């Protein structure tokens, strides 16, 4: 569910919302295990049509030039399985985020406590939003805004630009906390962590369209405690289920991710997270109470099975997006395309053509599964890695994980 409402420079990253149990194809995984192929994205149409639903007929490869599978969205031109997923039978996917450069709402010069978040990614650049929690620069955003990024830049309402560090995240709940380095005296958001009221007026604020401008768009809370299955595209294995969400008819578009859903008193009741592509748009926000519970845990350094604090661990391998590419004989697992020189894997003797089959004795069944296992690890951790080499021979070695350059 990596960049559900994140806009990208030159290419708009796509994510989809599908009813629970339905899935869409395509995935980008973080560089702690580098995956062969670029981030799922599509070319921005030259003449975007905000009201047009996605067609489910195009691929999701980098800049719209290929990719391993379709994502049910319009705009791309490649992909071997461009029909996408979760179709309604008429060639449309009403739950997918439209892949256009559209903006929505009214431009605003600034908004108290809302910042614009720009990221550098292996496949390009991304753009989202954030909510300032402290005057010295601790801010809340969606995990998918910063996932896989190698650097994060934040523009505050005072016009200053800061480099930001990811303090921690909870991928399963799509929440991350970042720290703006050297910041002081920032305007903070006023939060309302009480229960939202059905029908109350709200305003969504964020970097709509990811073009360096804040926008606001108004609506109401149309439902509470909603559940969606969200994905950037991808196989069902990569889809994430989000629960307890606020639903709104505020017309949020890519770039609003991590921005504020504000009530009529100017208080933030939720964090903009996802939206449909149909017109009118149905948007979703993580409640302030749920997001702040995770943020507090991260700020306190309280690691858990869901919350990761600090840098990611790196095994130092590039993994194929396919579960099996004929590497490692008939072994099932994560196929190694390349091993980083001097990295943990290379030092253990893992080479291109190998297939990683287990970590700490637990079977690795796919590239996604390997990433999930490493999500529980930290730099400096020692792990046992089992792999089958290109000749079909099995090996096991204990390695010390390095630090990933990617968030």
UniProtKB/TrEMBL annotation:
Domain of life: Bacteria
Keyword vocabulary terms for this entry: Hydrolase, Protease, Signal
Protein's name in the database: S1C family serine protease
Top-level EC class as recorded in UniProt: hydrolase
Residues of the signal peptide: 1-20
Residue ranges, compositional bias (Polar residues): 95-109
Residue ranges of domain PDZ in the record: 304-366
GO biological process per UniProt: proteolysis
Region span, Disordered: 40-112
MF annotations from Gene Ontology: peptidase activity
InterPro entries attached to this UniProt entry: Chloro_Bact_Ser_Proteases (IPR051201), PDZ (IPR001478), PDZ_sf (IPR036034), Peptidase_S1_PA (IPR009003), Peptidase_S1C (IPR001940)
Cited Pfam families: PDZ_2, Trypsin_2
Enzyme Commission (EC) number: 3.4.21.-
Residue ranges, compositional bias (Gly residues): 58-88
Lineage: Bacteria, Bacillati, Actinomycetota, Actinomycetes, Micrococcales
């Amino acid at each position: 569910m990596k960049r559900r409402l994140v806009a990208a420079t030159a290419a708009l990253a796509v994510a989809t919302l599908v009813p629970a149990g339905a899935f869409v194809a395509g995935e980008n995984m973080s560089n702690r295990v580098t995956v062969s192929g670029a981030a799922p994205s599509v070319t921005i149409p030259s003449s975007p049509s905000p009201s047009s639903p996605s067609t489910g007929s195009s691929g999701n490869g980098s800049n719209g030039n290929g990719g391993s599978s379709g994502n049910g969205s319009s705009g791309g031109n490649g992909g071997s399985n461009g029909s996408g997923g979760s179709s309604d039978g008429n060639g449309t996917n009403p739950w997918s985020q439209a892949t256009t450069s559209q903006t929505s709402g009214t431009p605003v010069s600034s908004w108290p406590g809302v910042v614009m978040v720009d990221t550098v990614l292996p496949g390009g650049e991304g753009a989202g939003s954030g909510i300032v929690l402290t005057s010295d620069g601790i801010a809340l955003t969606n995990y998918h805004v910063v996932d896989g990024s190698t650097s994060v830049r934040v523009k505050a309402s005072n016009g200053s630009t800061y480099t930001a560090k990811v303090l921690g995240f909870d991928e399963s709940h799509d929440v991350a906390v970042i720290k703006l380095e050297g910041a002081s005296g920032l305007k903070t958001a006023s939060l309302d962590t009480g229960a939202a009221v059905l029908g109350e007026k709200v305003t969504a604020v964020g970097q709509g369209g990811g073009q360096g401008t804040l926008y606001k768009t108004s609506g109401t809370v149309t439902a509470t405690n909603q559940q969606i299955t969200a994905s950037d595209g991808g196989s069902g294995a990569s889809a994430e289920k989000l629960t307890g969400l606020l639903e709104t008819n505020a017309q949020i578009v890519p770039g609003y991710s991590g921005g504020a859903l504000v009530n009529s008193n100017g208080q933030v009741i939720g964090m903009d997270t996802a939206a449909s592509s149909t017109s009118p748009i149905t948007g979703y926000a993580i409640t302030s109470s749920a997001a702040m519970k995770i943020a507090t845990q991260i700020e306190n350094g309280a690691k858990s099975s869901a919350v990761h604090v600090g840098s990611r661990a790196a095994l130092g391998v590039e993994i194929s997006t396919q579960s099996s590419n004929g590497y490692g004989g008939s072994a099932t697992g994560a196929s190694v395309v390349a091993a980083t020189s001097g990295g943990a894997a290379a030092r253990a003797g893992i080479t291109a053509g190998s297939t990683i089959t287990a970590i700490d004795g637990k079977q690795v069944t796919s590239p996604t599964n390997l990433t999930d296992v490493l999500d529980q690890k930290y730099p400096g951790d020692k792990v046992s890695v089992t792999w089958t080499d290109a000749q079909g021979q099995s090996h096991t070695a204990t390695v010390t994980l390095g630090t990933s350059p990617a968030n």
